[in-house]
Amino acid sequence: MTEPQYKPGLIRTPHGRIRTPALIPVVAASYGIWDLWIDGDCIAPWDLSQATILSLYHILPYKRRERIFSEGIHKALGTKRPVWLDSGGFQYMRKGAELDPMDVLGYQKMARSDVAVTFDYPITPGLDEQNKLLRLERSISSANMMLEKKGDMMLYGAIHGSTPREIVDYIGCLDDGFDGFGIGSLVPRKSQYAYLSGIISAVRNRTDKPLHAFGITGFPAMYALSYLGIDTFDSWTYLVAASFKEYIHPEKLNRIKRLKELSSLPECGCPVCQEHGLKDFVGPDSASEMLLALHNLYVFMREMENVREAVSRNELEEYIMGKCECGNRNISIAFREAKRVIEEKK
Question: N or C: which end of the chain has fewer CB within 10 A?
Fold first, then answer.
């Protein structure tokens, strides 16, 4: 068997430890359904996971932003677990806007997040060389500037590169002192598993610090990223699927669509499905979407716990190979590329 790059680990934060590898659900605070969870009407994503991550892009226009900045993000969410606060660089890039990095740091400090991420200027496929280099330089400058003024807050440096060599050189330009690194610019190529594996493996071989991968997780990526040595990765697939009325199959791990046309759902042991049925998931209201999202997240969290157990037993490859037979063919495709990259480095 090929030895995976990953070893069991812990990330220590002011609000507790995160056992890795870990999937961290994304909380889009300006998205309507989150009010139901923030109001404490029912169990919330941050109650089911080791930590949660928000983007400043969603907080700044949020109607409750002042409460977040005055009371702190933990009190606003009603959680005692770790909370990450991303800078929103990717979302602002898509809108053609940006923030002052020091303003971003100020917001992150006011929110009292456990882990903050530097403001960055992501690169996209097809970007001309001059503009790409400019964006990389600005991201490095922003990261080093924020590091100098971060105080006691944990800070991850956002890192970018269109090739393994480029992203390794990028890390070499960052000052010492970051608590970890967050790999960006991956979303546009999230289905290009060979490319992703090459980038991630190069970074993992460059540093022993915690690594976070932004925005590329479904089940295929979740298994491959764990095998490649990523410590944490974020996802809102559970919610996006629910918004399209898609139910994640608890065994096959694919999305079941057109729920209104079904007479029943597959058997599922999650607490949501123990109390609710198909009719509760297909309603047009936010409550139905919330329940469906929670079921989807339960499936993700269960699988993530299984991955951690397999890592602790040094049986991760065997576990993933078993999942390749579940019916989601992309799991096999992603894992094959991850394994190939590791074997080529030997």
Answer: C
Which H or E run contains 53? strand 52-55
Label the pairing between strands 52-55 and 16-20. unpaired
CA 247/CA 277 separation, integer angstroms: 12
The strand pair at 247-248 and 255-256 is best described as antiparallel
DSSP 95: T
pTM of the predicted model, to two decimals?
Answer: 0.94
Q: Which domains does the chain have, with CATH numbers?
A: 9-243+329-344 (3.20.20.105)
Closest CA to 193 of 222, 233, 161: 222
> The tokens of 205 are what?
């071989």
Look up tokens 């606060």; give the residue: 85
The rounded distance, in Å, linking the Cα atoms of 294 and 25 is 11
Is the Cβ–Cβ distance between 346 and 57 less than 8 Å? no
User: Six-digit token pair at 113?
Assistant: 């997040």
